[in-house]
Amino acid sequence: MACGPKGSEEPSLRCAVCGRDTELFELPGRKEKYCLECSADVATSILLTTEIDAANECGEETAGLVAEFVQLGRRMLERAQLS
Fold first, then answer.
1. Which residues contact 60 (CB under 8 A, 6 or more apart)?
2. Residue 6: phi, psi to the nearest 5?
3. What pLDDT, on a 0 to 100 scale, did the predictor assign at position 10?
């Protein structure tokens, strides 16, 4: 069964975010695999989302966290578009 590039038997080793063909890492609770940079950014985005939700529930200011989340998203999008 073909599951890698050009009918090879090897699964593709491409990052789920940027698509680079490099060493990949798994994050707990995720099916996808990511390169080192993207895995750090995905983990950070998960933490930021949790912190933003918690701050909203407590009625705390979230502007700084949201700005950081937006910046992180832009960085990941830029990396994905370059690859």
1. none
2. 50, 40
3. 53
Is the pLDDT at 12 greater than 90? The verdict is no
Distance of alpha carbon 4 from alpha carbon 28, whole angstroms: 24
Distance, CA of 27 to CA of 38 (rounded, Å): 11
Q: Model confidence over 41-50: pLDDT tens digits? A: 999 999 999 9
**Residue 83 has which token pair?**
């690859």
Record the pTM: 0.79
Residue 40 has a CB neighbour count (10 Å cut-off) of 14
Do residues 17 and 76 touch, judged by C-beta distance below 8 A?
A: yes
Neighbours of 12 (CB within 10 A): 12
